[in-house]
Specification:
mainly beta; seven-stranded mixed beta sheet; 1 helix; 3% helix
Length: 190
């Protein structure tokens, strides 16, 4: 039996390039030190290919203590996911390694801007205004299909999520026997 895992990360990008993660609400939220990460500048070249094999990825800090979103939002995730972030003068790089049992991934669509629920995916929400109301979303599913959207009004209703916003960014996915990797390169000018 296949399970699907979803990771939605919201965070604030501050001028110093310190990134604080605000995970989805849970009944027992993790302490603040569990959901923040310092994003380091890399001088190395990162090739967005779905492999986190560049030495630069070893220099970055990794966040891995996530909470479930579905089916319950009050328990730690039952599969480990590791998120590492780096930046250079042009891009914010995000590497996500999601461990799984087996490699039978679920998706409801291979169409760009697929729906969030019911599939294996990782979606990043950037709250650049720090208002907990608007965000830029970038995501990929386990098959490498990308999605991006603008979120308004806190994303409380379906019409608050606009997938008509399309932008140029880069991402690749690789699947393995016990995990899959999503690698993002999001230009700062996006």
């Amino acid at each position: 039996m296949s399970k699907f895992y979803s990771l939605s990360v919201s965070f604030l990008l501050v001028v110093s390039i310190t990134v604080a993660f605000n995970l989805l609400p849970a009944q027992s939220p993790p302490p603040i030190e569990d959901n923040s990460i310092f994003v380091k500048k890399t001088s190395g070249k990162i090739q967005v290919d779905g492999f986190l094999d560049e030495e630069s990825w070893n220099e970055g800090n990794t966040l891995s203590n996530f909470w479930q979103y579905f089916p319950l939002d009050s328990a730690r995730a039952n599969a480990r996911t590791e998120v590492t972030m780096l930046y250079d003068d042009q891009f914010l790089y995000v590497g996500v390694k999601s461990y799984t049992i087996g490699n039978e991934y679920i998706t409801q669509s291979l169409r760009r801007d697929y729906g969030f629920g019911g599939n294996d995916n990782v979606t990043l929400h950037f709250d650049t205004y720090n208002d907990a109301n608007t965000a830029f979303a970038f995501g990929m599913n386990a098959f490498g299909v990308r999605r991006e959207a603008l979120i308004s009004n806190g994303g409380r209703q379906r019409q608050d999520f606009s997938s008509s916003w399309d932008n140029k960014w880069f991402g690749e996915v690789r699947t393995f026997e016990d995990h899959w990797i999503a690698e993002f390169a999001i230009p700062f000018n996006t």
